[in-house]
Amino acid sequence: MGKYNFAIDSIDPRTTFGKIFQQVPEGSEVLECGCATGYMTRFMKKKLNCTVDVIEYDFDAIKQAKLFARDGFCGDLADLEWCEYFDGRKYDRILFADVLEHLRERDPMIVLKYARQFLKDDGRIIVSIPNICHNDIIIRMFNDSFTYTELGLLDNTHIHFWGIGDFLAEAKEIGLEAETVDATQLATGTTEQRIPYDMMDKELLNVLLKRQYGTVYQWIITLKRSV
């Protein structure tokens, strides 16, 4: 539980959370999927005056989150039992903030497909995912290394990865299209996946520095129904 337990006190538009909150109108009804200890739940209730329902598999974590939520379900998102629990409810926003890459037992797109039915007519699903195509990962792989870390792009609990084109194409197949695509940035050689500069192939580095999305650290995608 402690790995994803911290406080959010203000909106910094440069951060993933700040970019997500900018897409959540004040007073929204929100379903927060994978709420951890409720650091986002708390902010949305107290700062944005939102009504939030939460889903979290960690029993101790959801006990804290429910202090700021209207209702909550303790269980694995991939099991889809939450669909029956929240049956009949509709939301302005459904959040998957740093969640889909962790899901086990089921394709995350299936979970998104089920979440789609809980949207109001003008509702949106907001997703944040790491960019597996960051230059630092490509440089490390060029050096025959694919190393997981405690946190970050290759968090050791991540089991799903997408390039942005792949994610948008898969979302389209389940009836969702991107309304906005935003990103946080970390320069090449500054992420937790960096290697010493003297180990970098300079010709490769020169090519990578020309990539349009090579310094994207996380993608923040707002999805709407396409059909």
| H-E order | HEHEHEHEHEHHEHE
Strand order of the largest sheet: 3-2-1-4-5-7-6
Number of separate domains:
1
Pairing-aware structural class of the strands and helices? alpha/beta
Q: How much strand content do the residues show? A: 15-25%
Major sheet attributes: 7 strands, mixed
Structural description of this entry:
It contains 8 helices and 7 strands. Strands 3-2-1-4-5-7-6 form a 7-stranded mixed beta sheet, with helices on both faces. The protein is 27% helix and 24% strand. It has one domain (2-132, 159-189, 217-225): Vaccinia Virus protein VP39 (Rossmann fold, 3-Layer(aba) Sandwich). It has 227 residues and is of the alpha/beta class.
Lay out the secondary structure:
Blueprint: H1 16-21, E1 29-33, H2 39-48, E2 51-56, H3 59-65, E3 71-74, H4 81-85, E4 91-97, H5 108-116, E5 119-130, H6 135-142, H7 164-173, E6 176-185, H8 202-208, E7 216-225
Parallel strand pairs: 1-2, 1-4, 2-3, 4-5
Antiparallel strand pairs: 5-7, 6-7
Short description:
With 227 residues, this protein is an alpha/beta fold. The chain has eight helices and seven strands, in the order αβαβαβαβαβααβαβ.
